[in-house]
Structures
1.
Amino acid sequence: MGFDFPSITRINDSLAVQGLLRDLNHHIPIFKDMATVTLSDWTCALNHCRFPLEGPSLRRSFLQHKRSLPYSFSLAHRVLHTTNTSLRPTDLSYLYDGNVSIRHIFNSLPYSLKSCLPLNTPILLKNIGIRRLNQIATWSPLTCRQIPRLIFSPAASPQICRSQILRQYLPILKSWIESFSLKSLVHASFGLPFTYPDPPYTALWTLSIPRAARQRLSELILTNFATSNPRRPPQDPTFTGLSASDGSTIPPAPLPFQSRSSAFSSISTSHTLLATLDAFALSANNQLAEVYGILTAILLLRDTPRPDNPSPVIYSDNSNAVRHLNNALNLPSYNWASNPARALYRWIMDIVHRRHHTAPLLIQHIPSHTSSTSPPARANDLADRIASSAHRSIPRPPPAPLPTFFMDDYTLFSKTHSYIESNPFLYISNILARRSAYEASFRPASTLLHTLHDLTPPPTYPYTRATSAYSAVVQLYARSSQLDTNFTKFRRFGDISPWCSFGCAELETTHHIFTECPRFAHFRTHAKDSLVSTTTSLVQRQPYHLTKDEQAAIVTASSQLFADTDIWPLKRTRYYLGSMPNISDIVHSLSTNQRAHTAIVQSWHVAAIRLAGRIWGEYRRVTSPSRMRPERSKTTVKEMQKLACGVSISELLVIDFDVRQGYTWPHLANLDIVPFGVRVMLYNPIPTRNKTAFAMLRP
């Protein structure tokens, strides 16, 4: 765990989810249609007309339906439940259009909501020619303040009255239909209760609004953000004819489950826009912020065309986004399948194609944080400062809308990460690995408590680029309590002395070998001196702005890294496990000085794992069987019994022994010199048929 060693189970589970997503969003229509038909059969025939990949249906098991459902679909369903994720359809407009079977809606409702009508109501309506929802009801207008509700269509009354049974239920049927809102029908189709708490940013019912209407609403929201922004547009005349955008994320490279703050800005002489990516939850990153900034700049240029500048220029400091927009916008959509911001890129392409004026739009890269005084550089610097101000702004800037209208038809969703457009294989693998790490049976979790130590990600080079992974292997076995020290082998097999092989009056534990054993003291001393020298030169660098007292405290802490000192949470060093003490507790200013914090911790980490690798390599070299194997000599039973005179038996072991090979003198590995005298393990062989009893004797 922690070194990306593959797990066959996790690979299979992740591939099952990735394969299901690929089939449902396939760019070849026939493959997509086959998967969609299978999903429809799964929904209606096996799950009571409720979507099986979201909501309470994830708690069911469909592994028993092997004849009617592909096993890969059932496996993906189980993995989604295990990882607390789901597959959301991003287009439920058939409910808003009313192009859905009344029988389908009737079956998806719980019994308590349809008990007022005969159970064969859908069949009775079908017999008089009413099959779809839009034949019997319409929706109230969609407004920002009210969710649409069903309105009974008067034109359906004469048709219903032709049925003698339905005629008497007409008032009940009318009130029953008008009791439903668009939100309640969407929740029913997923098997969710009507009172289900739906977050406003990712509300399920909004997916039933047609894609075009959602897009128009989102563009209107962004335009209003620009017009209602209290910050005035820059009046610098040198900015005429150009726009600049930028994104900002804190921390710059967040961990997958680390909270973050992302925002973007777009400026020109006619507008200033600032918004956050709070709706994206933990999926927000700097790439999304940069692309969203470019999108808003293009959108606002389209809405405010300038006759005096037919070819506007947009500047961004994100070279990846600029290169992708300039080179890949006209590629087929399936080329964007692995792009984590593909919904935003599709939105940009649609805006560009709908531009009112035909002049080409130029998107250019501008280096950031330079000393240049050119108008593009100054405009980008202003956009960067505006975007960075969002992290400390009170109240917080408004959140930008999610581009669900340009997402894949089926998109991975999580309550913590919102809609996930990144690689589903890596995301599911990460979730499964974290789940395994927090299980009670996971050995490293009982070896090391991560929350007490520094959580800064380690440098990637020793684990992904180095030609030798010996240090990583030592960590893996140490965290799993698998390093084959004498104490570990004694606990497992009981046929070896648990004491230190080098004469210490201590158990040979992992901690003793790496921290206390004098046999390796010169390794620790050399590593400590080298680390102190490295840390001293590191903290004196100008960009870190550390005071003399802070520098001295950090250097002092580095000299105590390889010993049981107060800098460690439990006063017990864990450097050989690849963990570091939280240096923000030693120097409080490092909690905000992220750059210095990361540099110091990563340099300590490299020194620690190198020392652990050297110590364990020397231990294995000295204790290898070829160096510890004694010379075999012959002796007699009488001689051994004579040696054993006056010796007390402390342990009796019975092992297989071939009496035809004679009796062998005990090997020298069991002779230990300790401060209290000589401790010798002598074996007193006593022939018993085809076996020999061996006694551990102590003088």
2.
Amino acid sequence: MLAISSPTRARLISFINFGWNATHWNVDNLESFVSSWAQRESAVSPVVAETIVDIVRNLTRYNSRRKPELIDTTTYSSNKYREADNVLADWAMLKNASTEIDNSLSSDSKAAFSQLIQHPIVASANLANLLITIVANEGEKQVLLRRPSRECAAAVTQM
């Protein structure tokens, strides 16, 4: 059996499996493919595999908001509907859930999970955190500049 160890290979194998047995796979059972993959590659229980399915579903959904390479400091609003805060909270929950599973895996079964699930989550969460923090820092500078204090202006120039 071929061990899935790279994102390209994982997508290729899923594509071939879906095409090979097109009548078997449909919208209602695609998640069972991820569950069976998780059980096979990571040697986890069906319960943990279902948690991995939820993690993959949310990773796909969160990265579907905007592709990571298209996100910038203007993507999420920091003052409307708490959008930026909600995005950070979503990524933090997902990162915590995937890290818990990643830490519980044996070294033999960790590679596929880390490369296909854990790394994309950590990278996307870090990117969102970085860009939203930049916006927050710029907002703090603007607040300080509106104050008529020379000390505040000096503090801004030191930032």
3.
Amino acid sequence: MNSHARWRCLLVCVVILAQWKLVAGMMLVDLGKRYGLDVSNSNAPMHEGALRQIMDGVRDEKPDSMYLFGLMQFYGHGVTQDKDAAIRFFRKAAADRHVDAQFALGLLYHNGADGTAIRWVFLL
């Protein structure tokens, strides 16, 4: 690949990541609402049955439950806020091909987690 093609590829990646950054906050909030987590009001009480189902799924290592628990920890909804633990749960769910967890990780990495956003963008 010549240097011109490399620069073009880099420019495309930068444009894609810049677009992601514009919608990052909005997308994470939308994903939380999609799963019934009111992340705009993380102090709202969570239904006990919902929390029990999520925790049962986490124990069984179900990707949806791990992703939801990661969202809960990221926003401090129903549990103590712990963003490092949230990233660990997102990673577990993403490793099981959970698309929303992969997207959330890409956004978090893009915003400074550890520079591995490109890996999740291209699913390498």
4.
Amino acid sequence: MFSAKDASGRRARVKLGARRLRNSAVAKGRLLNCRARFPCYWIEGGEENEQIPGPRPVSATLHVEETAFGKWFLKTETWRVHVLERAMADLVRLIPERQASYGVVVDVGCGSGYSLPKLAQRFAPRELVGVDIDPQMLALAGAEARAAGVGVRLAEASSSRMPLPDGYADLLFCHQTFHHLVEQEEALAEFLRVLKPGGLLLFAESTRRYIHSWIIRALFRHPMEVQRTAPEYLQMLRSAGFVVPEASISYPYLWWSRGDLGILERWFGVQPPKEREETLLNLVAVKPA
């Protein structure tokens, strides 16, 4: 479907990533310039395959680049275990009538790719796609997938402009990505376009309460004007056309999402308030059939 020969008439071996990443220490991949100057990649456990066409040009204002600390944090055990794995386990639990496998799974905002092997393991897709706007993160994602022996297509693109056909994906995974996006409504419209009828959106997000906290403001960088409460995220998803069953919604109150980092509860036994403004939202939304 995505033929490099049709796009350029030839294939060129290059380092994984755009020209500015040519010296990065990652395994060799393949690059296809099939739309303007925008790259796309294909990594599959050492095998060669076709690539996804590169995305349309996007404005830099669509993405707020993370701080150096934020990029470092994505490599830590805290992120892998307490953030990513906890969210993924919760989302899997929320899936209505879960299937043994999902044909095409897309990780929107795949970052450094730690989620890719986990998605392959949990959903057994015949095709796994990772999308991210940051080419440095894509280079890391490619290396992560190759090390795990997982086949994945990687596309440098905005979440609101993905180079995928209509009705292509069975499942979209969007974990801790939305609070980085400026064009949130446009991204949801794109998710609906890319999903098949009846397809699932696994959505895990930090709310305004958490993103506006002092520690996050000090260490990370986000577009603060677009942050939303949990009810506002739910309303936006439903207004976009998604069906969000109440049984597929979760509000975890994990220690790292609290202003005191859970110290009061862990050290002094102070229980969190039952009535509070939620800091995290996990849900499974469905595109109507």
